[in-house]
Amino acid sequence: LFLFPGRHMSSTMLLLCHTLTVAVIQIFVFSENPAFAKNINFYNVRPPLDPTPFPSSFKCFTCENAVDNYNCNRWAEDRWCPQNTQYCLTVHHFTSHGRSTSITKKCASKNECHFVGCRHSQDSEHTECRSCCEGMICNVELPTNHTNAVFAVMHAQRTSGSSAPVPYLPVLAWVFMFPLL
């Protein structure tokens, strides 16, 4: 310790910083404070790292009769959709004042996505809006009107002669290596 006082000091500081970082992360992760919980960004969901069960497999937010969109997305099961499905379906029931009464999200076949849009029930004064989308966890938002209660399908249009130019590899390597020198 007497010969290398700087080494002892830096490892102590490193341990202190590490402990403080872990404590702060735990406060954010395990906090039940709604102010922290409302800041979860469901748009920043990354595709899972586990292997896909079949080609073109995907996941959807899934819940049944959730009270609101936040809780549906937050507690959605993390499972692969069955092979006989291609889309994510969202069914949103709400009052004439816009208050959600029930939200269901699931994997769906093309037949289940045949009827999208909004329907108002005169008897119960409730509205049901249904939407379908294609893609990994694409059903983040709720359909609330005829504008967003749609069947959203991605159409990849690739042509053989429209590829972007590939940068010259040695130049690209130099750009990444130069800051390290």
TrEMBL record:
KW Cell membrane (keyword) present: yes
Recorded topology in the membrane: Lipid-anchor; GPI-anchor
Taxonomic placement: Eukaryota, Metazoa, Chordata, Craniata, Vertebrata
Signal peptide: 1-37
GO cellular component: plasma membrane; side of membrane
Origin superkingdom: Eukaryota
CDD domains: TFP_LU_ECD_LYPD6B
Name this polypeptide is given: LY6/PLAUR domain containing 6B
Gene Ontology terms for molecular function: acetylcholine receptor regulator activity
PANTHER family, alphabetized: LY6/PLAUR DOMAIN-CONTAINING PROTEIN 6, LY6_PLAUR DOMAIN-CONTAINING PROTEIN 6B
SUPFAM superfamilies: Snake toxin-like
UniProt xrefs under InterPro entries: LYPD6-like, Snake_toxin-like_sf
Organism for this UniProt entry: Jaculus jaculus (Lesser Egyptian jerboa)
Compartments it resides in: Cell membrane
Keywords for the protein's UniProt record, in alphabetical order: Cell membrane, Disulfide bond, Glycoprotein, GPI-anchor, Lipoprotein, Membrane, Signal
